[in-house]
């Protein structure tokens, strides 16, 4: 049996009105689905469709096992710039936080990292993973690849520094972005567990190739941003 579209739309409109009136504020948690269903006088399946519709409009988002939350203001992100995530967030009046999950030398070269080797054979590379958050909510996960033959000891020197500062201070290289690629995806379980999403959460994948002054690719970043958290722009 099909759900009554007007009931779904009415529930969506009422929750949307609560958001606009500030009854539930950005970043805050919505009542549980059981409580919402009781407040609206509708069945859970109808409520779930209304919530999914609001999620598709980037007005609310889910955290795995924690419920639904009101979307925060979007982060204005120009992936072409070298400005740090911290500085860009602070300039927008946001409170950034971040952390590394893994810094390791791994065997086997994933396809995404092949441009680092420019056709030469290698069996090892540095892999660094981490996350970034705004106002206490994790909004992206990143995976970075570096050729250890180009930057020996990079993961030991990184500590809590930015990648660009390590390249400049430790290796005398000023790196610039040579390639940017974007595509919509749905996040895997492995990524979701780090940023609190549920399997299949919509995301924007950003792939960056960073090159030295000779045009050699020295770093590849793969970023997975929650789609409701970011506005991307590039100045031409």
UniProtKB/TrEMBL annotation:
Looking up CDD domains in the UniProt record yields:
WHTH_GntR
Which Gene Ontology molecular-function terms are recorded?
DNA binding; DNA-binding transcription factor activity
Q: Can you name this protein?
A: HTH-type transcriptional repressor yvoA
Outline the extent of the HTH gntR-type domain.
5-73
Annotated keywords: DNA-binding, Transcription, Transcription regulation
**Would you say which domain of life the source belongs to?**
Bacteria
Q: Which gene encodes it?
A: yvoA_1
Q: Which InterPro entries match?
A: Bact_HTH_transcr_reg, Chorismate_lyase_/UTRA_dom_sf, Tscrpt_reg_HTH_GntR, UTRA, WH-like_DNA-bd_sf, WH_DNA-bd_sf
Does the UniProt entry include the keyword DNA-binding? yes
Q: Which SMART domains match?
A: HTH_GNTR (SM00345), UTRA (SM00866)
Query: What is one process in the GO biological process aspect for this record?
Result: negative regulation of DNA-templated transcription
Q: Does the keyword Transcription apply?
A: yes
């Amino acid at each position: 049996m099909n759900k009554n579209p007007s009931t779904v739309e009415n529930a969506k409109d009422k929750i949307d009105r609560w958001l606009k009136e500030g009854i539930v504020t950005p970043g805050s948690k919505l009542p549980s689905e059981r409580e919402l269903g009781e407040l609206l006088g509708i069945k859970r399946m109808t409520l779930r469709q209304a919530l999914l519709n609001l999620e598709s409009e980037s007005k609310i988002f889910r955290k795995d096992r924690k419920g639904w939350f009101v979307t925060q203001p979007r982060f204005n992100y120009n992936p072409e710039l070298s400005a740090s995530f911290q500085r860009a967030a602070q300039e927008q009046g946001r409170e950034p936080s971040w952390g590394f999950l893994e810094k390791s030398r791994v065997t086997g070269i994933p396809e995404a990292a092949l441009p680092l080797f420019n056709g030469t054979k290698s069996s090892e590379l540095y892999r660094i993973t981490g996350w970034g958050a705004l106002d206490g909510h994790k909004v992206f996960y990143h995976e970075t690849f570096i050729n250890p033959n180009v930057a020996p000891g990079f993961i030991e020197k990184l500590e809590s520094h930015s990648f660009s500062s390590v390249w400049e201070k430790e290796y005398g290289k000023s790196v610039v972005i040579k390639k940017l690629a974007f595509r919509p995806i749905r996040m895997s379980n492995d990524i979701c567990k780090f940023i609190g999403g549920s399997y299949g959460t919509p995301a924007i994948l950003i792939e960056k190739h960073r090159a030295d002054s000779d045009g050699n690719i020295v770093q590849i970043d793969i970023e997975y941003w929650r789609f409701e958290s970011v506005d991307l722009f590039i100045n031409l």
